Structure formats: C-alpha cells, structure tokens
C-alpha cells in the first residue's frame, strides 16, 4: 500500500470522524489541554512577573528560569508527573500529567518575556507618567503593560506553540490528543494515521503561530506600531 | 482482594551501581547525538547565513522554512522519518539537526548584523578581503550572539534527545522510557537528572568557550 | 595571528570530536564483532534477552545490548536490516507476522515460522518448551458480573466493554484483529496503553478498562485474582520462546554459539518465566538480576 492509499484508507474509516478516537475528539482534547496549560501558566506567573518587572528586579531570575526550563526534558517531567499521579490514584488516560508538564513548559517563556517587556519601558516614560499623577498601579496598568504588549505576546506565542508541539508526548503515557495518531500510527505501521496526525499537529502549531502574530500586532499600541 | 501495583522506593543505589556501564554507554549516546546534531546544524546554518547575509531577500524564506521545521513536534518528525531513513541514529540526527537551524541562523545573522559599521570600514581600510573580513573580523565580533544561539540550540537538543528513546536510542531518555515501562522511579530520576546535568555542563562549557575565544570582552568587562 | 590560531585549534578539536562521535559500527558480521542483543518492550522479553546476553558474556562473547527496543513492528525490521543480531521471539506471533499458517502444535508452528524467516536472513534456533501466549484478562468482579470463563462468553457483552492493550493491538492477528475475526467480538472502545506493562495493569485495576491484553506467563494475573479467559476457539497458536538470530551472525560464530543458545532454550520452561515475570511485575525486581539468578540456578554460570 502506498502512503497515499494509506492516508485515503485512514480518512475513509468511520472511526476517524466519530467516536472517542476521532480527529475531532483528539483535536478538542489537544487544544483544550494546550489552552488550559497556557492560561494556568499565565495565572501562576504573570502577577509575579509584572511586579518584578515593575520594580526592575528579577532579570537574573528570569534568565535563570528560562535556562533551567530549557534544560529539563519535558519527556522526563511527563514521566515523573504521570507516575506520581498514578500512585496517588489518578486514572489512566486522564490529562493531569500532561497538563502539569505543559504548564511547566509554558511558564518560563511567559515569565521571562513579561519581565523583559515591562523592563523595556524607558524610565523617562515612567517618570512622565508618575509626574502626570498616576499611582504605581496606574503606571503598570496604563503605561507599562500596553507598551510591553509586544514582548508579552511574544512570550505567549512561544509558550503556546511549544505546548502544542509537546502535548503530542502525552500519547506516550496513555493520554489522547493528536499525539495518539502519531504513536498508534507508528505502532500499527499505519502511515496514513501517522501522517494525518503529524500534519494536524503541524497545522495547529502554525495556526497558533499566525494567530498570535496577528494578536501581537493588534495589541501593539498604535503609537508603537507606527514606529515599527 | 486487589494487590495494588507498588512502585519501588525512590532511589535504588544498588541498581545504579549495577548499571554504571549502561549509564556510561547512554552518556556517550546522548553526548554524540547532541554533538553531531548541533555540529551539523552549525555547519548548515553557517552556509545558510552566508546566503542570507549576501542576498537579503532570502532571509525571510529561510527563516520561514526553518521555522516550519521547528513547529513539527519531535515525536512526529522521528516517526515520519522512519519509512524514509529507518530506525537508527541517522533518523534522530536529521530531525535533531532540523530543530537547531532556526535559532542558529537567527543568531548568526543577528550577530553579524550587530558588528558595528565603523569596525567593518576600518577592516576594509586596512586592506582585508571580504572573505578575510568575514572570518577574521565579523565572526569573532559576533561571537557572543552566536554562542548564545549555540547554547540555546545545545540545551534544547539535549532535551529532545530523550524523545529518541521511542526510536530505540534515547541517551538518558532510555532510562526514562524504561522507568515508565516498569514504574521504576530510580530509572526515571536517573534519566532526568543526568539529562539536566549534561545540559548544564554543556551550557557552562559554552560560556567558557566564549571567554576563551573573546578575551577582549573580558578585558572591557 | 594568535586569535586566528585559537579559532583554528578549537575548530579542529571540535571537528575531530564530531567525526569520532559520528563514526558508527560497520555492517556484516565477522566473529570479532560484538553480538547485538535486543528485546521487545516488556519485562519477559528483557529477562530472556538478558539470559542470552549474560550467558554469552560468561562464555567470552562480546555483547552489545539494545533492550526494550519496541514492538515487533520496530524489532523485526531492525533484525532484518542488521541493526540488531539476536532477539528472543515467539513462534506463533512471529509466524503471524510472517504470514504463515498458525498451528497449535509447537513443531509445526516452529517449522513454518523458521522456513519463512530463513528467507529474510534470520534463523530461528531450537525452540524452548516455555510458551507465552496472549491472555485476555478480566477482573474477578467482571467475570462474576457477566459470567465469563471463556473468550466466547464475551460475545453477548463485548459491546458494553472497554478493551485495553498495546497501541499495535488493533492490527495484530492475535489481538483485536483476531478477536474480531475469529470470535466476532466488537468492543465498545479500545484504549491504547502499553505492552502488558504497569499502565495496562493499573488501568485494569482502576476500572478504566474491562478486558486487558496480558500474557499467560504474567504471574500477576493469579496474584491479583484476575481471570484469564480460556481461548476456547483456539485463536492462539503455539508460542514457544525461540532465539531469532541473523543467519550471517550464526554462521560467523558457528556451532558453539548455537549450542550455547540451544542449552538455554532447553532449560527454560513456562513456570520459570511465570515466576520471573511475577517478581519483575509485582515485586519490581530487576530483569537483569532475575536473568543472572536463573543462569546460576541452572548451572550455566558460577554464582
């Protein structure tokens, strides 16, 4: 069977389009867990990062966090999280181990880029804002955040794309997601399934990339945009 | 009555002692997969950077393609290469090399671009040929940025090598996968810890390399 | 120029290191090359592979291990292409993979599989009396609830049950594919897990799946009071453990190597496998240690 025939066969199967193992189900699982991971990572690190950036501390911590984050293999975190959860009684096939791993993956770029973004606002600008009577909170909200949007968005973009790609590893610990098609396709020597799965994840990642680039442009304050 | 699956105590030191040989073997495997992939990536990136610097319009498509490669999940790329290349180190290296290209090219180009104009003019004034100027002036001055890129590429690759365990390789990832197959904590922890250690050692190594190759940076602080 | 020299020196060292790292081993086989022993990705396979590996090493052969390589979809091509040299196989399953007729008679099954594999450059040596077949396992509660003792008993209720097994299961003639064709079973859902490993075991314990694919030699089945459904329609052929070795390697090393491996096959039996599996699965003992113990207990190596 050629590769094309295998793809056709896979796409022709009814279970590909309906049921728990369908493209829709796996896509939904994948997107939901990716989104949840990024959102939770934001909730966890944004407040701290915004504050650290505002008081102009923590750029060393930021660099260290990103370096450590990059040095720890996601596959390893996944295995550890999975084992802990199973021992705690979590069910097989639940997404928690994957979610924890993805949060750990998303947090560093969001953290670091937010600090860098806030700190990139020139002190003279801040002084003008304070001079105009803004409180510290006001400075953060009305001046620093809008001006650092490009970098914050950049962090979110990096995080989201990495999370989408890494969520495929969840299939190695009996979870679903689009990685399921890759792992099962490989195990069953079903090239159609494998290629469809890989293509879908790739497309999803590209979509996220493009979407966030657009969001980056949209949230860049008009004044900054003009000078870009 | 169900007997629950118990996992072993956290670190079985005897296991580590018995398996030192395997640990050493996997260290070489991890190191060589990383070194070959980053090395190959550097060579390819240098070539592509020269092209991009000479013909500026190519930078965008080059970044686009390497960026595209970067978004393909490693698991997918390894699996997709199997029918083409087989289940071996070549497969792993091709995929791992692809992932280094984006960051290396970006940093090579940014680094070279960052060399101040006056310096280039001075070199021209001193009679350097374009090639001599590139290799003896621009590259050395761009070194900090280039090495920053090498650090990121290397550390990222060390992490990705663990995933090659699904191809029967894995370096330290072999212990992670095997530990997952048997719910054996020691193996997983050994795999993760050594992977982090290797990444850190290589990272620090690059910092030293940079200091070695840019003594002037040290002097100016 | 000092600077330029420094670059060139570093560059040369890095280059040499890369070349050294990239140098792989050659192809073909001479009796100087190490024997590459591999295994599938479940405990029993690792144990038997370790028996071969440690036994060979004790007799002066040089051995390279790449254990836990993967499922047969990965291991068989690696064996055929020479990436690995020796793997413990199962006559029935490898026969199914080779497309030969299945038989419950050990001799017949072995003959058929051997002939087919020979064409691909792999020799199946003498088979062991030890057999390990696929087991279709339910918990005692499930067996009581639906009155299950044989696989056929699943026929009226399969549509309500969830089947869990390795990801390759749906395509395997002795797994879901066979259960469908021979028994007409259509399960409600298939959940891909691992190869009869702790994930599958945990899933059966936790109720995420109702029927698990395990192996008949897994002592944990009895230990947990689970029910291994009887294969009343004879889906499973004979599954004797047999060393699969690349013909080139067997020829290069000659009769001594073959005789050594034959001696291990002869001494290995189903009870041994079951006991070792139980200790590996339940007590988390190290497969390599278990193999060493077995070799010593059977007089193949010194204590």
Topology of this structure?
The complex is a heterotrimer of chains A (228), B (221) and C (303).
Chain A: H1 3-12, H2 23-54, H3 59-71, H4 74-87, H5 96-119, H6 123-131, H7 136-166, H8 179-187, H9 191-219, H10 222-227
Chain B: H1 13-18, H2 20-54, H3 59-71, H4 74-85, H5 89-113, H6 117-125, H7 130-161, H8 173-182, H9 185-213, H10 215-219
Helix pairs in contact in B: 2-5, 2-7, 3-5, 4-5, 5-7, 6-7, 7-9, 8-9
Chain C: H1 2-22, E1 35-40, H2 43-58, E2 63-70, H3 72-81, E3 86-90, H4 91-98, H5 106-118, E4 122-124, E5 134-138, H6 140-146, E6 162-165, H7 176-183, E7 189-192, H8 198-206, E8 211-215, H9 220-223, E9 227-228, E10 241-246, H10 247-253, H11 255-267, H12 270-281, H13 287-297
Parallel strand pairs in C: 1-2, 6-7, 6-8
Antiparallel strand pairs in C: 3-10, 4-10, 5-8, 5-9
Shape of chain B: elongated
Number of helices of chain B: 10
Distance from first to last alpha carbon of chain B: 69 Å
- Rg calc of chain C: 22 Å
Biggest sheet of chain C, open or closed, and with what strands and sense? 5 strands, mixed
Give average pLDDT of chain C, whole number: 89
Q: What strand line-up does the widest sheet of chain C have?
A: 7-6-8-5-9
Order of helices and strands of chain B: HHHHHHHHHH
Percent in strands of chain B = under 5%
Strand content of chain C: 15-25%
Per the principal axes of the C-alpha atoms, what is the gross shape of chain C?
globular
Q: Could you tell me the mean pLDDT of chain B?
A: 88
Q: Give the proportion of residues in helices of chain B.
A: over 70%
Spans where pLDDT lies below 50 across 5 or more residues of chain B: 1-5
Structural Rg of chain B: 21 Å
Q: What structural class results from the helix and strand content of chain C?
A: alpha/beta
**Percent in helix of chain C:** 40-55%
Largest chain interface and its two residue counts? A-B, 40 and 40 residues
Order of helices and strands of chain C: HEHEHEHHEEHEHEHEHEEHHHH
Tell me the total number of β-strands of chain C: 10
> Helical segment tally of chain C?
13
Explain how this protein is built.
The complex is a heterotrimer of chains A (228), B (221) and C (303). Chain A is mostly helical. Helices cover 78% and strands 0% of the residues of chain A. Helix content of chain B is 80%, strand content 0%. The termini of chain B are far apart. Residues 1-5 of chain B have low confidence and may be disordered. With 303 residues, chain C is an alpha/beta fold. Helices cover 46% and strands 16% of the residues of chain C. Chain C contains 13 helices and ten strands. Classes of the chains: A mainly alpha (228), B mainly alpha (221), C alpha/beta (303). The interface between A and B is large, with 40 and 40 residues.
């Amino acid at each position: 069977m050629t590769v094309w025939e295998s793809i056709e066969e896979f796409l022709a199967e009814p279970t590909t389009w309906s049921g728990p193992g369908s493209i829709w189900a796996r896509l939904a699982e994948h997107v939901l867990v990716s989104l949840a991971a990024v959102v939770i990572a934001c909730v966890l690190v944004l407040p701290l990062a915004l504050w650290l950036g505002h008081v102009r501390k923590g750029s060393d911590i930021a660099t260290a966090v990103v370096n450590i984050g990059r040095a720890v293999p996601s596959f390893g975190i996944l295995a550890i999280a999975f084992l802990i959860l199973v021992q705690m009684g979590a069910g097989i096939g639940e997404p928690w181990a994957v979610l924890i791993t993805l949060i750990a993956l998303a947090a560093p770029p969001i953290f670091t880029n937010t600090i860098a973004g806030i700190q990139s606002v020139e002190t003279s600008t801040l002084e003008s804002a304070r001079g105009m009577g803004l409180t510290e909170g006001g400075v953060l909200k009305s001046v620093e955040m809008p001006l650092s949007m490009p970098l914050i968005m950049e962090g979110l973009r990096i995080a989201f794309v990495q999370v989408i790609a890494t969520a495929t590893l969840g299939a190695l610990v009996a979870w679903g997601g689009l990685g399921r098609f890759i792992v099962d396709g490989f195990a069953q020597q079903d090239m159609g399934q494998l290629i469809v799965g890989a293509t879908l994840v790739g497309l999803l990642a590209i979509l996220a990339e493009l979407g966030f680039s657009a969001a980056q442009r949209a949230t860049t304050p008009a004044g900054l945009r003009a000078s870009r | 009555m169900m007997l629950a699956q118990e996992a072993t105590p956290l670190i079985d030191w005897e296991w580590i002692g018995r398996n030192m040989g395997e640990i050493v073997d996997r260290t070489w495997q991890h190191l060589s997969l990383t070194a070959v992939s980053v090395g190959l990536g550097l060579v390819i990136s240098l070539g592509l950077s020269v092209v991009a610097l000479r013909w500026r319009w190519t930078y965008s498509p080059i970044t686009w393609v390497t960026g595209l490669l970067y978004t393909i999940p490693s698991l997918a790329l390894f699996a997709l290469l199997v029918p083409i290349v087989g289940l071996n180190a070549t497969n792993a290296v091709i995929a791992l090399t692809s992932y280094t290209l984006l960051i290396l090219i970006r940093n090579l180009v940014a680094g070279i671009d960052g060399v101040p104009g006056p310096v280039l003019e001075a070199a021209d004034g001193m009679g350097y040929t374009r090639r001599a100027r590139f290799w003896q002036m621009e590259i050395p001055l761009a070194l900090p940025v280039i090495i920053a890129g090498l650090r990121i590429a290397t550390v990222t690759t060390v992490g990705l090598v663990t995933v090659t365990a699904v191809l029967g390789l894995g370096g330290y990832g072999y212990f992670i996968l095997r530990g997952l197959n048997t719910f054996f904590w020691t193996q997983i922890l050994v795999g993760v810890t050594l992977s982090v250690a290797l990444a850190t050692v290589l990272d620090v190594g690059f910092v030293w390399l940079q200091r070695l190759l840019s003594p002037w940076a040290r002097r100016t602080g | 120029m000092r600077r330029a020299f420094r670059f060139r020196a570093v560059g040369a060292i890095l280059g040499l290191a890369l070349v050294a790292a990239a140098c792989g081993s050659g192809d073909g086989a001479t009796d100087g090359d190490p024997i590459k022993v591999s295994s599938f990705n479940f405990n029993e396979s690792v144990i038997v592979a370790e028996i071969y590996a440690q036994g060979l090493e004790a007799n002066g052969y040089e051995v390279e291990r790449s254990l836990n390589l993967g499922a047969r979809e990965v291991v068989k091509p690696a064996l055929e292409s020479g990436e690995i040299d020796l793997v413990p196989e199962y006559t029935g399953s490898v026969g199914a993979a080779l497309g030969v007729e299945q038989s419950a008679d050990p001799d017949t099954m072995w003959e058929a599989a051997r002939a087919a594999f020979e064409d691909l450059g792999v020799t199946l040596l003498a088979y062991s009396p030890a057999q390990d077949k696929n087991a279709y396992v339910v918990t005692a509660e499930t067996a009581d609830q639906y009155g299950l003792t044989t696989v056929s008993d699943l026929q009226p209720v399969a549509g309500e049950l969830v089947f869990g097994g390795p990801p390759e299961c749906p395509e395997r003639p002795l797994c879901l594919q066979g259960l469908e064709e021979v028994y007409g079973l259509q399960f409600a859902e298939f959940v891909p897990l691992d190869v009869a490993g702790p994930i599958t075991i945990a899933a059966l314990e936790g109720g995420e799946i109702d029927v698990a694919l395990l192996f008949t030699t897994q002592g944990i089945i009895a230990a947990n009071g689970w029910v291994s459904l009887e294969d009343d329609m004879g889906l499973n052929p004979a599954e004797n453990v047999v060393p699969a070795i690349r013909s080139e390697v067997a020829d290069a090393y000659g009769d001594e190597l073959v005789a050594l491996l034959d001696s291990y096959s002869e001494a290995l039996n189903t009870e041994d496998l079951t006991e070792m599996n139980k200790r590996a699965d339940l007590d988390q003992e190290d497969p390599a240690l278990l193999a060493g113990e077995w070799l010593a207990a059977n007089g193949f190596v010194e204590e």
